[in-house]
């Protein structure tokens, strides 16, 4: 815990009203979007400038305090949960869009800008910032950079990393650093920003972010296809890519998920269907139209029982709502939602969905799966009640089996939500040992005192031989921190 002199010092650095330390004020900072990963911080500090961030970090180094950067706390791997009685460093006061440079097609923003606000600001000028995580109305650009967030447009446009051109960062010992430029071609030295994107708050705190923009696509066509089986939907995905068409969006919902969405939103989805695909094509109006028609034909050819093409942007938004509602619709079914994020090569998508189905059957758990079909990135969502110890144990087993199945299919542990706390044991177990050692070395060179986000991505110290991994349910002791 902080002593009173440390508290006063922090208040002096950022202003008394920007430091929270009463227990009642800390609850909301005790968790992110991840179930079963909770722990109260010892305080929350909200700096108002890069200089204040640097001053807080220098103070933390001097006093042996730990700091956890935090945007909106929508993360799904426990990244902004404060272990080791850390102090949360809230970045939400740094929330200005500093510049939209039309000539160079870039935007410069502070990290606390909400992603959808950046979209709106650049689109008002005919420009386009593609990364669109499902949480875009509440998450921050800083959190997106720290997690290398993806979204529904990832197949055609890539992920956050593909748009970061420069970063102002406060390093773990308190130095302010700028890396990158507005030049599309820039190979001066190591590409530090590529290392920092996706570093989950462990290598530095972003205080300014320079992103690349594109021209706003002139038109967009959205269609929704209903299939009797997941296999038919997957065959359509393969046929679309082979056509070749790279749609802006190619998303799927399995039967359990679409039933939950229908039960939640009553939007007319047929609940006896095996799967649905949401498809979007954008660009020149003629290209968007002809690609959308071709995708519709391919869907019918592969067994779609219903194909609905939106006739306006508003109708397109309504069709896309089914996909955007998947997580909240599943989350209301049971008290606890554990969301997975494995990714497999696109060609192995059906095998992965089938593996999840088998795991659901053998564990007796309800698992709804939705995700980015075009990217092979799935979100099997395990629904349970964390108060039921037996269900928690079965969930842990299922969680591990899902990760293992993805790796056996040539996939990876996480496509976009990051390692954080949720998957650090899996990263340690399944990484190439030399790669893991290199990551650890980077970490200790940049942050020798382990001040920033301790215990995230991997343990501070290597796991001992024979020590069991921590699965999501086993973090339950952290609940202690939340009991009044
Ligand atoms: C309903 C829902 C839908 C979602 N859909 C998607 C999706 O489609 N795609 C996707 O990728 N993710 C998705 N997510 C996950 C989440 O929204 C993203 O990971 C997002 O990038 C987190 O942003 P945040 O501002 O909430 O960050 P937080 O959760 O506050 O923090 C996330 C990580 O970033 C670090 N961090 C935050 N700010 C900074 C900073 N300024 N400097 C350094 N480190 C920092 C934190 O320490 C933490 O490790 C979804 C989440 C929800 C709840």
What attributes characterize this protein structure?
alpha+beta; Uridine Diphospho-n-acetylenolpyruvylglucosamine Reductase, domain 3; Alpha-Beta Plaits; 7-stranded antiparallel sheet; 5-stranded antiparallel sheet; 16 helices; globular; binds flavin-adenine dinucleotide
How would you explain this protein's 3D organization?
- The protein has about 475 residues and is an alpha+beta fold.
- Among the domains are: about 95-215, 2-Layer Sandwich (Uridine Diphospho-n-acetylenolpyruvylglucosamine Reductase, domain 3); about 220-325, 2-Layer Sandwich (Alpha-Beta Plaits); about 335-420, Alpha-Beta Plaits, CATH 3.30.70.2740.
- The protein has 16 helices and 18 strands.
- The protein has helices at about 5-15, 25, 50-65, 115-125, 140-145, 155, 190-195, 230-240, 255-265, 285-300, 315-325, 325-330, 350-365, 390-410, 425-430, 435-445; strands at about 20, 45, 65-70, 85-90, 95-100, 105-110, 125-130, 165-170, 175-180, 205-210, 215, 220-225, 250-255, 275-285, 305-310, 335-340, 365-370, 375-385.
- The strands form four sheets. It has a seven-stranded antiparallel sheet with strand order 15-12-14-13-17-18-16, sandwiched between helices. Strands 5-6-10-8-9 form a five-stranded antiparallel sheet.
- A hairpin with a 5-residue loop joins strand 8 and strand 9 (about 175-180).
- Helix 1 (about 5-15) runs antiparallel to helix 3 (about 50-65) and helix 13 (about 350-365) runs antiparallel to helix 14 (about 390-410).
- The model is unreliable at about 465-484 (pLDDT under 50).
- It binds flavin-adenine dinucleotide.
- Flavin-adenine dinucleotide binds near residues 74, 143, 327, 416 and 417.
């Amino acid at each position: 815990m902080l002593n009173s002199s440390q508290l006063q010092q922090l208040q002096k650095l950022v202003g008394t009203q920007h430091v929270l330390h009463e227990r009642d004020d800390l609850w909301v900072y005790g968790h992110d979007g991840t179930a079963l990963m909770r722990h109260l911080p010892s305080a929350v500090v909200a700096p108002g400038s890069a200089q204040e961030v640097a001053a807080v970090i220098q103070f933390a180094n001097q006093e042996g305090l730990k700091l956890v950067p935090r945007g909106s706390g929508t993360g799904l791997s426990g990244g902004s949960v404060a272990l080791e009685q850390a102090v949360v460093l809230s970045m939400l006061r740094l929330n200005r869009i500093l510049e939209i440079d039309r000539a160079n097609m870039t935007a410069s923003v502070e990290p606390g800008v909400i992603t959808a606000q950046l979209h709106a600001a650049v689109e008002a000028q005919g420009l386009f910032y593609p990364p669109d995580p499902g949480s875009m109305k509440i998450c921050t650009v800083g959190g997106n950079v720290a997690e290398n967030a993806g979204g529904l447009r990832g197949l055609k446009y890539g992920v956050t990393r593909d748009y970061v051109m420069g970063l102002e960062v406060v390093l773990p010992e308190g130095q302010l650093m700028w890396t990158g430029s507005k030049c599309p071609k820039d190979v001066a030295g190591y590409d530090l920003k590529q290392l920092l994107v996706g570093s989950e708050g462990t290598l530095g705190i972003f205080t300014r972010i320079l992103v690349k923009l594109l021209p706003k696509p002139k038109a967009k066509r959205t269609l929704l296809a209903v299939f009797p089986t997941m296999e038919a939907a997957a065959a359509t995905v393969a046929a679309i890519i082979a056509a070749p068409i790279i749609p802006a969006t190619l998303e799927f919902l399995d039967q359990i998920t679409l039933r939950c969405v229908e039960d939640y939103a009553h939007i007319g989805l047929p609940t006896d269907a095996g799967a649905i695909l949401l498809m979007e094509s954008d660009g020149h109006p003629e290209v968007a139209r002809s690609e959308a028609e071709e995708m519709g034909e391919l869907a019918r050819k592969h067994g779609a029982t219903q194909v609905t093409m939106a006739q306006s942007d508003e109708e397109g938004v309504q069709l896309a709502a089914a996909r955007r509602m998947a997580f909240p619709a599943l989350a209301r079914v049971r008290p606890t939602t554990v969301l997975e994020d494995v990714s497999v090569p696109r060609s192995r998508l059906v095998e992965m969905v089938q593996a999840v189905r088998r795991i659901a059957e053998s564990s007796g758990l309800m698992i709804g799966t939705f995700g980015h079909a075009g990217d092979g990135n799935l979100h099997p969502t395990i629904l349970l009640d964390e108060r039921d110890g037996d269900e928690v144990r079965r969930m842990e087993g299922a969680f591990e089996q899902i990760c293992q199945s993805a790796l056996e299919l040539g996939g990876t542990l996480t496509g976009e939500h990051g390692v954080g706390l949720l998957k650090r044991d899996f990263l340690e177990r399944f990484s190439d040992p030399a790669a893991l050692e290199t990551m650890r070395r980077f970490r200790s060179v940049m942050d020798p005192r382990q001040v920033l986000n301790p215990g995230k991505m991997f343990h501070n110290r290597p796991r001992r031989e024979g020590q069991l991994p921590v699965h999501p349910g086993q973090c339950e002791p952290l609940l202690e921190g939340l009991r009044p």
